[in-house]
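Sample pair:
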Amino acid sequence: MSSTSAQRAITLLSLATFASAASIRVCDPLLPELSRYFAVTTGRAAQTISAFAIAYGLLQLLYGPLGDRYGKFRVIAWATLGCSVGTLGATLATDINWLVMFRALSGATAAAIMPLAMAWIGDNIAYEQRQAVLARYLTGQILGMVGGQLIGGIFADTLGWQWAFGSLLGVYLTVAALLFAELRRNPAIDDHAGVMTPSSERPPFLRQTLSLLRIHWARVTLLAVFLEGVAVYGAFAFIPYYLHKAFALPLSAAAAILAVYGLGGFLYAMMAKRLVARLGERGLAAGGGLLLGLAFTLLLLAPSWPWVTPAILISGLGFYMLHNTLQINATQMAAGYRGTAMSAFAACLFLGQSVGVSLSAVVVDSASPRWLFAAAAMVLPLVGLGFSLALRRRQIPHEHPRVSIGH
């Protein structure tokens, strides 16, 4: 595959990731409105987030082997089209049970997109360039998280929560059409399917997953991302609710403040090459965890809503410093079946999110979201520092894929 084709493919994968990330975050600012509309507690409304995350995490065990066998780009295209079904159902849901069910269906189909996209990049981009390329690819995720927050907040205050899901439906259908067009234009895009491990020698996907878990470094990386998911997303899901209740901000304004998180992500994307060169992976992991701890401390102590904005900005920078380091190491956990490895990585992240949101919902219904911020401020620096120390003893083998994107 040519460098131009690879760059075009990465752009399309980033668009698919935009849609998936928007779906993940769209319900955060909708929680107060969903609670009012369906006459349920905020914790019950939060099941629209945890159901998505649980289905997203569990289905990774299926999509990783499917991507390795049939082609990662092809599976992503079909999954993006499939996401429209769950999103349409969510748009038309008439009670909270149906909405939770269709959110679970959306999570089950969106599960293929991000991990297989990163695995595709791992197959096709040289290791020395991979962290910078992943940072550029992740602009789709950053914009999606920002867009999901804004879409949810704006429609919650104006036309209604159904319009938030309806707008995502249009995005999914558009991106799916572009992905299938690329498959027709470039049939060789999935040449790595079945190449790194021939199908005649490839173990069943359950045995593949168990083999992955026997690798010490894989267990370290998966544990780190699970704890990251618990601490970061468990607290983040309730920040719009906190701003709405504590400072009487409209949901659209609360969502706009949380969208500043994306600016922190963009700061990382723009500075990725320089940060990698200056800090190395160990410095990025430790620094990212410390910045996240600082951000949640500021959020905990904020006397008024303007203080929240710099905290959210810092959290975006810190998260991507830590998470991108975890991702780059995850691409090397098991190069022979990278789709399975990246799916296990995503499964741990989103199972962590589902655990974090479920536990956080109990805290929010019985106490204050500030307890969530305090817990995150303590846990995340430990995760970053712990992974940094583990990296000291780890040497990553480099391989040389066929495609190299110039600097």
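The two ends are 17 Å apart (CA to CA).
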